[in-house]
Specification:
The chain is of the alpha+beta class. The protein has one domain. It is 21% helix and 28% strand. The strands form four sheets. The protein has a two-stranded antiparallel ribbon. The protein has a two-stranded antiparallel sheet with strand order 3-4. A two-stranded antiparallel ribbon has the order 5-6. Helix 1 runs antiparallel to helix 2.
Length: 160
């Protein structure tokens, strides 16, 4: 199937696995294409901006073509830091920097579509708890949502 797994240990003689990603999988908006390898690279760089890199538990990314321009939405599952089970990350400066790191880490074609052609919209932060709907509903983007677009800087689009 192309799943990439990492052996994390054994239970009796059966191996225990951690899902890493899917090989050769691509998501796309407009004409650019972002591979799973691009996403995995981004996920190793963006959490460095957070107060603690131990906050990120898992994540997923999908394309949202219900808006103009289209954009990617990245969902991060964060570890709880307080008694109520909620993570307080209302510091938009930290989240803005995370979005900028993500966009700078994506491929050149994405950066050109985002900054020069402006046919790909900014990364967005959705309301808390949205990831709870993902496994149960494919209609995540058609439901009412609160979006706070954070990525106000455009990524550098020039080739090296």
């Amino acid at each position: 199937m192309g799943d990439v797994l990492q052996v994390t240990g054994f239970h009796n003689s059966a191996p225990q696995f951690r899902f890493v990603g899917r090989k050769k999988m691509v998501i796309s908006i407009q004409l650019e294409a972002t591979t799973v390898d691009d996403i995995l690279r981004v996920l190793t760089q963006a959490p460095r901006v957070l107060e603690s890199s131990n906050l990120l538990m898992s994540s997923t990314i999908c394309s949202d073509i219900s808006t103009v321009p289209d954009h990617y939405v990245m969902y991060w599952e964060l570890k709880s830091k307080n008694i109520n089970g909620l993570v307080e990350l209302d510091d938009n400066k930290v989240l803005l920097e995370c979005c900028c790191v993500v966009e700078e880490s994506l491929n050149l074609v994405y950066r050109i579509y985002r900054s020069k052609l402006r046919s790909v919209g900014a990364l967005a932060r959705d309301k808390s708890g949205t990831t709870r709907n993902i496994p149960f509903s494919h209609e995540v983007f058609s439901s009412p949502k609160v979006l706070l677009h954070l990525s106000t800087r455009h990524p550098v689009a020039s080739a090296l």
